Amino acid sequence: MKYTKEHEWLKVEGDLVVVGITEHAATQLGDVVFVELPEIETMVSTGDEVVVIESVKAASDILAPLDGEIVKVNDKLVDNPALVNEDPTGAAWFFKMKIDDLSALDDYMDEDEYADYIG
Question: Where are the alpha helices (DSSP H) in 20-110?
C-alpha cells in the first residue's frame, strides 16, 4: 500500500488502483454519516474532489490521488457510511481507478513513511 499526505491509502489490484482513507483519517473524522461517491467512467485529474464524506464532526473531500478514470465505486458505503469507521483500510474502499502509469505511485509514502508522517 501507498499513502498520501491527505491520509488516503492506495492499493494496486491488477491494472487498477483502489483508494480509501486511513484509520487515522477515519478516527479524526469521527462517526461517518454520509458518503457521496463519483460516477463510474468519470475522468479525474490529481487533486480533483472525488468523494464527499460527512461525519458528526465535519465534511471532508477525498481528492483524486492520480490522473485516471473511475471504473468502480463501493456502493455499500452509500447505504452504510459507518463502514468507513469500522473497516477503513478494508471493506470501506471508496473507488477503483484505472491509471495510465502505475509508476506514479512511487511518489507516495510507504507504510513506514506514513507512520512517521502521522507521528
Answer: 23-29, 76-79, 83-86
Question: Minimal CA–CA distance to 93: which of 37, 34, 31, 18?
Answer: 18
Q: DSSP letter at 118?
A: H
Residue 85 in grid coordinates: 469507521
Going 37 to 74 to 5 to 14, the CA torsion angle's sign is: negative
- On whether the pTM is more than 0.90, the answer is yes
Q: Give the pLDDT confidence score for residue 100 in this predicted structure.
A: 85
